[in-house]
Specification:
This protein has 148 residues and is of the alpha+beta class. Helices cover 40% and strands 22% of the residues.
Length: 148
């Protein structure tokens, strides 16, 4: 059970926010379950990792991102001076946050296109299982199968 979660923030995510979430997450998990989980921050990846070593094993990667991480200018739109602010000094890596935004867009696109096609979902789940079990099919793994 390797899971990825993208946490959308209103403002650009910072190392301080990452540490705050990481410090509070064990308390939230503990209130839901009696099992022990390892929770730690990875500033270089802009992620929080949650690991449970007892059965069933769990690896959760939480990535912080924001729509404000995109470039200040998009096409012909130019943000006004009131909307542009200085970036905080402990801002998380922009590239990692943009990759998380792309993953979120892919998942939303996939859900919008495939949700109504029940047979397509079944075929993709079977294909994902084959990719996980047969080494020769492993190159077909990717974000499409992760949305199921």
């Amino acid at each position: 059970m390797d899971l990825e979660l993208v946490l959308m923030c209103r403002d650009k995510p910072t190392q301080t926010l990452l540490h705050t979430v990481c410090d509070n997450l064990p308390l939230q998990i503990q209130s839901l379950t009696d099992e022990q989980h390892e929770v730690y921050c990875r500033i270089t990846d802009a992620t929080i990792r949650v690991h449970k070593s007892r059965d069933p094993h769990l690896n959760l990667k939480i990535t912080l991102t924001s729509a404000r991480m995109r470039d200040q200018q998009s096409g012909d739109e130019v943000l006004s001076a009131a909307e542009t602010t200085e970036d905080p000094p402990d801002l998380l890596d922009q590239h990692r946050c943009l990759v998380a935004l792309a993953k979120l867009r892919h998942a939303k696109w996939f859900q919008a296109r495939v949700t109504g096609l029940q047979s397509c979902l079944i075929v993709l789940r079977v294909l994902r299982d084959v990719c996980n079990r047969v080494v020769a099919w492993e190159p077909l793994k990717g974000w499409v199968g992760s949305g199921l």
